[in-house]
Write a structure and sequence with these properties.
This protein is an alpha+beta fold. The chain contains 7 helices and 22 strands. It binds zinc ion. The site of zinc ion has 7 residues, from helix 4 and helix 6.
């Protein structure tokens, strides 16, 4: 797919762009809630509920560092060419739910290989091989998320990932820099601070994730921007920028349930923004949709969530916060 995009960039023939974007849509249509895909390193036949079936048949759900690296590469190309923010949504989902939770490469080359989404006794384990493919793509990804965070454009800059970061660029003949302060995705806010050699007019494009709700707000220097914010698009913030300007971006981050596929619509993952909240500890056999959505933070300094009420409840946490404990990504719903 990435080769098709290279062919498009060199030859300009639309068929290569169509091939890559159609192919990527096929991958997304059979992705897990984490953004990972490819049980047993293969694709499933669409429309037959086979992703749901994989939850009971394999522990080799997603070849993580290589799959995440490939995912970053194709979404980076597609975003560069189309400026469609949904490729950025997909990229961050893989970043936070899979690669951020991969165990570190050990000194002898022992490497995290598969993310496990099996319904029964999922665990994070190392692969058997020393220095496999995934020991190389893991550090490559470290470079890739940096270069995928911002995209320059003749009329301004696209802010794709919400990371603590700093970017410097030339806008016309003006040296500009932008520093982002954020605790995203645990926090639902990010702050952008600008430094410019002189006043310069350009557009800052902010990615509004497709899942963002009506609580999403953008302010410049403390004053709310009164322009319609559309989820699933970049928001264009055009003005004459000066040193010291500050953008506050609050992203409405609702809880939602995502089914594994159409044929298994009562098998759902709990999501908050880009993060899958994964069940740990004692897990109820079955819950209602309303109980699943009754989730609240477990405490001020914890990444855990308490899901459910009364006797029917469990603890959920992001993949990155899971250590050796068993976990479950997908939960059965009543009915
Ligand atoms: Zn690999």
């Amino acid at each position: 797919m990435s080769s098709a995009l290279q062919a498009y960039l060199v030859l300009g023939d639309e068929k290569y762009l169509r091939a890559a974007s159609n192919d990527f849509r096929m991958v997304q249509e059979q992705s897990y809630a984490t953004g990972g895909w490819g049980p047993n390193e293969g694709f499933v036949e669409p429309g037959k509920g086979l992703l749901g079936v994989s939850l009971g048949s394999t522990h080799a759900s997603f070849e993580t560092p290589c799959g995440a690296y490939g995912h970053f590469k194709i979404t980076r190309y597609l975003l560069r060419v189309t400026r469609d923010s949904r490729y950025g949504d997909s990229m961050e989902r893989v970043l936070y739910n899979t690669i951020a939770g991969a165990k570190p490469v050990l000194a002898d080359g022992t490497t995290f290989y598969y993310s496990d989404y099996n319904n029964d006794k999922s665990k994070k384990v190392y692969g058997n091989d020393k220095w496999p493919c995934c020991s190389g793509t893991f550090p490559q990804l470290t470079a890739d998320y940096g270069i995928s965070a911002y995209y320059p454009s003749p009329d301004g800059i696209f802010v794709n990932l919400f990371l603590p970061s700093r970017v410097e660029w030339w806008q016309n003949q003006t040296r500009c820099s932008l520093t982002q302060h954020t605790g995203y995705p645990a926090a639902n806010t990010t702050e952008l601070r600008f430094e410019l050699a002189r006043l310069e007019r350009f557009t800052v494009y902010l990615r509004i994730p497709a899942w963002a709700d009506e609580k999403t707000r953008i302010s410049v220097n403390g004053k709310r921007v009164e322009k319609e914010i559309v989820a699933g698009r970049f928001f264009a913030l055009q003005r004459s920028w000066k040193s010291g300007d500050r953008v506050e971006f609050e992203i409405g981050m609702p809880l939602r349930l995502e089914k594994v596929d159409e044929q298994n619509s009562n098998t759902v993952a709990l999501m908050r923004g880009p993060l899958a909240l994964i069940g740990v500890g004692n897990l109820p056999k079955v819950m209602s949709r309303a109980q699943m959505l009754m989730a609240r933070p477990a405490g001020k300094n914890s990444e855990d969530w308490m899901v459910g009420t009364g006797g029917i409840s469990f603890t959920a946490r992001p993949f990155a916060a899971i250590g050796e404990e068993p976990y479950r990504l997908y939960h059965p719903l009543e009915g």
